[in-house]
Amino acid sequence: MSAPRTKLWPIEPHTRAKHEILRRYLEAWTAILGTSNQRVIQYVDGFAGPGAYSGGEEGSPIIALKAALQHEARIPSSTKLRFLFIEDNEDRAAHLESLVKALPLPANFEVKIVCGGFEEKFREIVLDRYVERGLSLPPTFAFIDPFGFSQTPFELVKTILSYPRCEVLINFMYEEVNRFLRHEDHPGTFDRLFGRQKWRDAPTGGVSARRGFLHDLYVEQLRTDAKAHYVRSFEMRNDNDVTDYFLFFATNNKLGIKKMKEAMWGVDQTGEFRFSDATNQAQMLLFGEPNFGELQRRIVDRFVGCEATVDEIEEFVLADTPFRETHYKRQVLAKLEGGGEIEVVASPTNRRKNSFPPELRFRFREH
């Protein structure tokens, strides 16, 4: 969608789905980090908005605060939860501030609302605060949710991910990127967005091919340049069933990818990680069964003729497929073992039937 001009605007169905993913993940993230003896944990909303929509629905900053408040009793008072909300529109920032003031926040919740651009304010308030002192960032979740593509340089994403226990959830505005991809005014902007010039090789014909190319290029950048071990995307489509944007999640934390996949599967239980306003106007969740046959094919193709432990198989499932850690043992490995397609080569002596401890090692037969 184009950037709204009013202080508040109506929420769209795909935004509801995006916020549901965000809420589910932040409830888990806050509970885990808030009770792990951290001195500070930090949530950054780079394009915070007014905190609400014209119909009264909550915006991402309020969702984040309420997710943390759910675990207030479990979080030690010595752990500071720092929330930084950046918004470049003064009226929206003021509206957000009024909503935050109405919440009963405990003393260890520190909320800062600043008016300005994401890149400038993040560098000024977060990076300068730590980096210039030679300190590492505290565990940080950065939600980068712009309306366009000019204020989200990849170099900043890369910097965030360079610190331990820092994660990003990025709204990659594909529709706008695609529309202006060949515009003579934007090559430098796209160089900054992707962090390299390879976007210039995007196919000029074929919508699907171009979409796949740009999606895969951004994933490649997150994995190879930003060194994010786990990357997962979720496609959002508008009411014409055309791709509006992709949500990209990137982390180096195994528990983080488990919880984000859990959140995404909670919105699209088909595992396709796609939501369309055209077909889901009255339905938040997409119901379906995981395609265990597809997961079995991927696992067999990856390990055919090789040996692998259950732990190594799970790592593949988490890092290289959309499936969860709950999807591959009884649904795939048990079937393969029962059919003689894999054989045990090393096992704990006390292994129970249909159990798959991490150190259990299989050999995958040749096709």
Primary descriptors:
11 strands, 367 residues, three-stranded antiparallel sheet, alpha/beta, Rossmann fold, Arc Repressor Mutant, subunit A, eight-stranded mixed sheet, 2 domains
Description:
By secondary structure, the chain is α/β, with parallel strands linked by helices. Helix 1 runs antiparallel to helix 9 (about 255-265) and helix 10 (about 290-305) packs across helix 12 (about 330-340). It is globular and about 65 Å long. The chain has helices at about 15-35, 60-70, 90-100, 120-130, 155-160, 175-180, 185-195, 205-225, 255-265, 290-305, 310-320, 330-340, and strands spanning about 40-45, 80-85, 110-115, 140-145, 165-170, 230-235, 245-250, 275, 305-310, 340-345, 360-365. The termini are far apart. It contains twelve helices and eleven strands. Mean pLDDT is about 95; it is low at about 280-285. Helix 2 links the parallel strand 1 (about 40-45) and strand 2. The longest helix is centred in the first third of the chain and has 22 residues, at about 15-35. About 40% of the residues lie in helices and about 20% in strands. The protein folds into two domains: about 15-275, Rossmann fold (3-Layer(aba) Sandwich), CATH 3.40.50; about 290-365, Arc Repressor Mutant, subunit A. Strands 3-2-1-4-5-7-6-8 form an eight-stranded mixed sheet, sandwiched between helices. The chain has a three-stranded antiparallel sheet with strand order 9-11-10.
